[in-house]
Amino acid sequence: MKLIKAIIRPNKLTDVLRGLYAAEVFGITVSRVRGHGGEVDAVETYRGTTVKMELRDKIMLDIGVSDSFVERTVSVIQRCARTGSVGDGKIFILPVEKVVRVRTGETDTEAVTPVQ
Amino acid sequence: MKLIKAIIRPNKLTDVLRGLYAAEVFGITVSRVRGHGGEVDAVETYRGTTVKMELRDKIMLDIGVSDSFVERTVSVIQRCARTGSVGDGKIFILPVEKVVRVRTGETDTEAVTPVQ
Amino acid sequence: MKLIKAIIRPNKLTDVLRGLYAAEVFGITVSRVRGHGGEVDAVETYRGTTVKMELRDKIMLDIGVSDSFVERTVSVIQRCARTGSVGDGKIFILPVEKVVRVRTGETDTEAVTPVQ
Amino acid sequence: MAKRFLLVVATLALVVPCAYAQEASSLSGADTAWMLVSTALVLLMTPALAFFYGGLVRSKNTLNTMMMSFVALGVSGVLWALVGYSLAFGKGTAFVGDFSMALLSGVGLEPDGSIPSLLFMGFQGTFAIITAALISGAVVERMRFVPYMVFIAVWGLLVYAPVTHWVWGGGWLGEMGALDFAGGAVVHVNAGIAAVVAALVLGARKDYGNEAIIPHNVPFVLLGAGVLWFGWFGFNGGSALAADGIAALALVNTMLAPAACLVTWTLLDHMVTRKITAVGIATAIVVGLVAITPAAGFVTPASALALGALAAFPSYFIIRWRVRTSVDDSLDVFAAHGVGGLTGALLTGVFASAAINAGGADGLLFGNAGQVGIQALSVLAVAIYSGAVTFVILKVLGQVTEIRAAADDEGIGMDITDHGEEAYADGEGAVLLDRTEVPLEANGLNGMQPTL
Amino acid sequence: MAKRFLLVVATLALVVPCAYAQEASSLSGADTAWMLVSTALVLLMTPALAFFYGGLVRSKNTLNTMMMSFVALGVSGVLWALVGYSLAFGKGTAFVGDFSMALLSGVGLEPDGSIPSLLFMGFQGTFAIITAALISGAVVERMRFVPYMVFIAVWGLLVYAPVTHWVWGGGWLGEMGALDFAGGAVVHVNAGIAAVVAALVLGARKDYGNEAIIPHNVPFVLLGAGVLWFGWFGFNGGSALAADGIAALALVNTMLAPAACLVTWTLLDHMVTRKITAVGIATAIVVGLVAITPAAGFVTPASALALGALAAFPSYFIIRWRVRTSVDDSLDVFAAHGVGGLTGALLTGVFASAAINAGGADGLLFGNAGQVGIQALSVLAVAIYSGAVTFVILKVLGQVTEIRAAADDEGIGMDITDHGEEAYADGEGAVLLDRTEVPLEANGLNGMQPTL
Amino acid sequence: MAKRFLLVVATLALVVPCAYAQEASSLSGADTAWMLVSTALVLLMTPALAFFYGGLVRSKNTLNTMMMSFVALGVSGVLWALVGYSLAFGKGTAFVGDFSMALLSGVGLEPDGSIPSLLFMGFQGTFAIITAALISGAVVERMRFVPYMVFIAVWGLLVYAPVTHWVWGGGWLGEMGALDFAGGAVVHVNAGIAAVVAALVLGARKDYGNEAIIPHNVPFVLLGAGVLWFGWFGFNGGSALAADGIAALALVNTMLAPAACLVTWTLLDHMVTRKITAVGIATAIVVGLVAITPAAGFVTPASALALGALAAFPSYFIIRWRVRTSVDDSLDVFAAHGVGGLTGALLTGVFASAAINAGGADGLLFGNAGQVGIQALSVLAVAIYSGAVTFVILKVLGQVTEIRAAADDEGIGMDITDHGEEAYADGEGAVLLDRTEVPLEANGLNGMQPTL
Ligand SMILES: Nc1ncnc2c1ncn2[C@@H]1O[C@H](COP(=O)(O)OP(=O)(O)O)[C@@H](O)[C@H]1O
Ligand SMILES: Nc1ncnc2c1ncn2[C@@H]1O[C@H](COP(=O)(O)OP(=O)(O)O)[C@@H](O)[C@H]1O
Ligand SMILES: Nc1ncnc2c1ncn2[C@@H]1O[C@H](COP(=O)(O)OP(=O)(O)O)[C@@H](O)[C@H]1O
Known about the structure:
The complex is a heterohexamer, with three copies of chain A and three copies of chain D. Helix content of chain A is 26%, strand content 40%. In chain A, helix 1 (13-22) packs antiparallel against helix 2 (67-81). Chain A is built from three helices and seven strands. Chain A is α+β, with helices and mostly antiparallel strands. In chain A, the strands form two sheets. A four-stranded antiparallel β-sheet of chain A has the order 2-5-1-6, covered by helices on one side. In chain A, strands 3-4 form a two-stranded antiparallel sheet. Chain D is mainly alpha-helical. Chain D has one domain: Ammonium transporter fold (Orthogonal Bundle). Chain D is built from 16 helices and three strands. Chain D has a two-stranded antiparallel sheet. In chain D, a hairpin with a 2-residue loop joins strand 1 and strand 2 (115-116). The longest helix of chain D has 31 residues, at 370-400. Chain D is globular. The chains are: A alpha+beta, D mainly alpha. At the D-F interface, helix 2, helix 7, helix 8, helix 9 and helix 10 of D face helix 2, helix 3, strand 2, helix 4 and helix 5 of F. The complex binds adenosine-5'-diphosphate (3 copies). One adenosine-5'-diphosphate sits between chains C (7, 35-39, 56, 58, 86-90) and B (27-29, 62-64, 101, 103, 112, 114-115).
């Protein structure tokens, strides 16, 4: 089991979700985050106070997948989230020791297989 | 050391927190997330534009625990977060290499033992 | 590769970011979270309804670093996020199997090296 | 408007210079101007109430709560014009009007007092709207929306219109000498009692008493309170039905009483909880406004200050007590409007002074203890009637349909379940439907170039 | 104001008691009071519109959208005083005024009718402002801000002022007998057509039709709708230019028509989608207000109810149809204002009654079928002129500069790209700049002790 | 009201048709109607200010900031009625009134000019409220709430009331011929100076200059600005104390000056930063309103346009400069109100024209250079007095109690520490207390069935 943690641009979320569903990855958790990387900072001014916004809005996906799904999940994200400009994001693959489905107590691969 | 990452329903948060405190798990970090899984999508209409909301509000818990606490933490969450309907959520158990308490620099088990 | 997950006080974020940039850690993802730990709970009253706020606003940082950067990243956070009062937060170091940069497909160390 | 109007004309004669021009049959431009404004001001109170209430609920029920006020602007407004006004102000009996003015027949631009009778109808219509909307505070977060609409429609005709007739339409309470300048009993006691009955019939929200249910947007509560205050100048000042000294008295009292109530509430809050709360200040403003409503044109400004300060006490402590009971009058309509209206009505019987308004009466302080009794009786009558009929309407409605949301829907929040919308959305994970269902014609247009 | 004013004075004479004092050359305090209020009310509509529109867009474009309304308060307001008023109400020809009152020369405190002519100028100025701001709903989230400012500046002079002259300034449509009490054609059809043309010239937003673009703050939409309604009492009621029976009629109609429209829309929504939406209710209020605008002082209250109810249908279905086309009139200015204004203008021709307002005319229902034709013609004339000139202005502007935001900017959101601000910010990750650039003098002061 | 009233009656006589009815001893319905409305409008400005200020701070201090305005509605309102009005408008000396009208004794429905004297008291009371609330912008996010309440209470009596007496209550500045139509010096310079002194005494916020402190809700700022503008029509228009030509002049000038200021600010913003900001536009509206306040009824509309445009410059650049200093006048009360009021007062001395208002005077442009000197002197006198007394009050208060929040509390945010509330809460992790503390009686009721 792996946990795929992907940081993407907010306006790529729809595309990535569509891609993931198409690849039969249905269990996904999404959070709004902000990120700093290589992008140029936005400058804003409020009544003469000039500030540099060092964080950009991003979306973080947490996707628990069984080992066989890792590659296709990563490649879907890479394909759908890419714009080619700095700021497209990163994907982290983390080892997971155990996954439990709260509702049924099923574990690991069963836990991430969606209900029909 | 493990990091327990649990995704639960927002309206189960109070119950889960109470359960965790009762089980003497006090160090908890909570985030608002949204999830896609097996639930039926809500349909909304705005001035004739009909949209399907594929993400449901969820809560994600990040709980760092020493190995001996893993089982009871998971079972408390399972017990308190369960409704039996699709959408109850998942629990991921991730290995952790090191935990540091910022205030004291204590590490690992000491770092997650709450102050008295 | 490691993922450093740090929970800190919101008003320490600016200091921590400055510290990280100085330490040449540029790739950072930030989320607003809430935490429970050893802090005293705030009590609020709304029209006679008294509630205890068991969660405090915190910031969570997710920072993917190559192994050689782990130590200095942790020590920067420890130094910059510390106030000495209960509630300063925790740092978790998680193993990462692979990191991918969405834009280029570079992996691991190349993926977390910032663009010039 | 019979009796009330006579009082007003009487007082008018004392203070308006061009009194010779004020025969019953002629319009006054000045009075018309003020009543035009007052009508607009009172109408604005219903959107203001939507924000006051909407800020107090959880975000998942924001729109549902706000729409309970907004829909009254339609439902209660239209029904008022069609029949309500006639039931309230038609000649009829001592207990209810008639259908003589149904469909606004005979309500035109001819003067009723010194303003066009149509304008009087409109002004009174804004009262009918807000009274219905007030009740919603007791049933938010759990009453299904369509039954709610039916409820306020029926309630407006069966409860609001008759009660208005009793007091202002030539009915028995007005005849008896009950003083209710702008609706302490008619509007606030009436809505407050209906609210608590509705809360009991519907039952408590499932999370009530188990979970902390706290306001999702306190600035909206303050916005609502501020705009309510502004609108209330039309509510009370406009109830003089003229731009005269009594209007000025009512308006200034409407400024002073809430101010005094706010200060008192602030001190109570500080003494009891060591914190001065924003929700408390917003509530204090409303309680002060409610309390001065029956008295506004009948008491001196000094009395208004006293009345406002006194009114803080019962409402403050009843709110604190209520949340510890099982009665889920969710936004404390009873404590704010029912109790505030009661306090105001009784204190009107204490502070009223015929010296300041010859069209009113003297109260206890000026030697007429009987007025307090009349006031108590009027409140009691309104409370009993309103409570009983509200109960019957809801029970009958409950036979016909389910008036309460399913527990699951309550959990999800009524914005999504009843309205298919979210108050605050960022569009993440929202997928457009319907593009394939485009009708042929539209498809044609679909092929149009995006830019000319 | 010529023709219109005569009508008003005529009706005035019937209902105002002190009519003997109402010669063309004397001020009326009452009328002045009401027009002061009306002017303030209409000015408030533009901030209200900012909230109505601002709530409907995505949060990254909130400020941009709101500022499209707010900036009109400056640009259109100043230009109106400088030349617009003169072009609209100067004697001139049947098609446009002249420069005789440019820079407000000769516009002072002397009476124009029964109010100071300066006040008439101000009142009309608030109309010029909101009409320009209305158009912005069609171009939000993609039109660059500076070209937008230039556009509304030019549009106000080349389109709004002449069209106003046609109808109210002594021009050909007014002469022909077109009834437009408060701007069904002048304001709403005019802005509605300009909006759809602007949407077509600019092209659709890049996400339009691909992504779900949903309102980020529906309470703001309701706030906007509520305050618009309030302000509209000045818009329609003030168009009587006096505190008389016609003002009362217009105001009450402005209360009833939106109420009826709201109820009808609610029923349609429930039947079509099984949900009664808040955005729908807000839209219904606006459509009802738009539709009654040309009719407000010419029809009976019963007709206003019917007119409001009827007006819901075309706008409701056109909105549903529009979103399935490629025409990205983003906030449905055409469906709400263009169509609502058209419906209202035609129904004015149906329901108008000389019995209720001798200064108006009879409509189809009262035997004068020709009025519908006149109404249709007036709408058509305004639509063609507005559409054509709007097209030319934008095309010329497009030659001079880029009027559409770059795709990247559209993605980031115009608040940051065009205004360098965010609507809702928490300051995280924001780093203060400029501390090092403090000028010498300031540095001196910088050395001051923080506390005395 | 002495002197000022005479001026007004004089001008009144010129423009009101029924002038024969306007003896000092008779009420005018029209004037009363307009002053009723104006009082309501000015009262609304304080909630509007709460939003203007509340949107500019960080979300953790939203309620604290808003309540600093709301609480003035109580504290300053009540004290005005009890003593402030008498100190300001009682006969007294050239420097302060007396206690002859304390507790509103003798302030009733008898005419004061053409309106009830009680109404004049109420109208002036709304000025006292907002002036106190204005100061709060300089001390937000760090001043403890209870000391703040005490401060504005004392300040209202020791500073606001005397200064008002000087200018409008028959005091020395009025006698000297200083022109201040609606409070350029009395309200804005007064509050602006008090603000900067308070900011200096309290010291800067601990994050000031280190962290970026940016507005948490710019739409609220725009809402505040829009509603302030609306209310300001009552502020300036109502200061004519009649519904006459001068009121119209004041109101139209109050429309034009901010419009011109907005346009100028927009151009400045674009030239200096290449962005046109929403906070900038909101600020420009307020600055334009402040600047026209002393001049509103004394200058021609063309002058108002010029005055508004000119007023943008000093405030714009002082705001930019101020943030680079160590003076944490957090919401730039000095730059907007102090400097705006100063500019307006001086330009009144330049643009005033006795031709447009015989009750005013000629300014520099019309050959009376001395008026500028008088204006300068009046501003200087107010500034010195206000600054000195504000300083003393705060220093004395600082001896009695801690006026500044502890650094920790400042970090947490004053909403939680001083009010025990959050502006925006979702209830997550909130645990209900107190269920066990239910008193016995309540427990009884607790046992009631949830549904009947
Ligand atoms: N090392 C990292 N750890 C965590 N998050 C990162 C890291 N590097 C980048 N990110 C996230 O990815 C986003 C995009 O990264 P950035 O370096 O700007 O672009 P790119 O990946 O195209 O070079 C950042 O805004 C941040 O949220
Ligand atoms: N594989 C997964 N990875 C990450 N999050 C998941 C995964 N599967 C489910 N979730 C989260 O858990 C929530 C509930 O899952 P769902 O499949 O709907 O219900 P259930 O767990 O009861 O079958 C989802 O909304 C999502 O947030
Ligand atoms: N075991 C844990 N797992 C996850 N998060 C934790 C844990 N312990 C603490 N935290 C987070 O760190 C924050 C501070 O912890 P706390 O125990 O209050 O202070 P300290 O670390 O100074 O002892 C908490 O609010 C919570 O967000």
